[in-house]
Amino acid sequence: MKQTPNLELHYGTAVWVNPTTELVRREECLCWNCDNLKLSQPEDNCIIAEKLYQICKSENLALTITRCPAWKAKKD
Predict the structure, then answer these.
(1) Would residue 3 count as lying in a domain?
(2) Which residue of 17, 26, 66, 74 is most buried, as measured by CB atoms within 10 A?
(3) How many separate domains does the chain show?
């Protein structure tokens, strides 16, 4: 690791955060840059992203997805 993780408070829970990857997490994550991601529409959201979101929510995690068979470029 380039930097030592920091203990931070997120959603009321103390969690360890990798400062190097946290800086680029949303910018580089396939999910955040995918046309299939529709968080406000759970019935139409990507099935894979929804499953990952539920795990992240219950365990207070943040993921950066770097591979996905269902990725689709966002429409402008």
Answers:
(1) no
(2) 17
(3) 1
Q: Is there a domain that residue 59 lies in?
A: yes
d(CA 6, CA 8): 6
> Two tokens at 42?
């759970």
Cα distance between residue 65 and residue 39, in whole Å: 16
**Does any domain span residue 4?**
no
Give every CB contact of residue 29 below 8 A, 6+ residues apart in sequence: 63, 64, 65, 66
pTM of the model: 0.84
From first to last of its 76 residues, the chain has per-residue pLDDT tens of 999 999 999 999 999 999 999 999 999 999 999 999 998 888 899 999 999 999 999 999 999 999 999 999 998 7
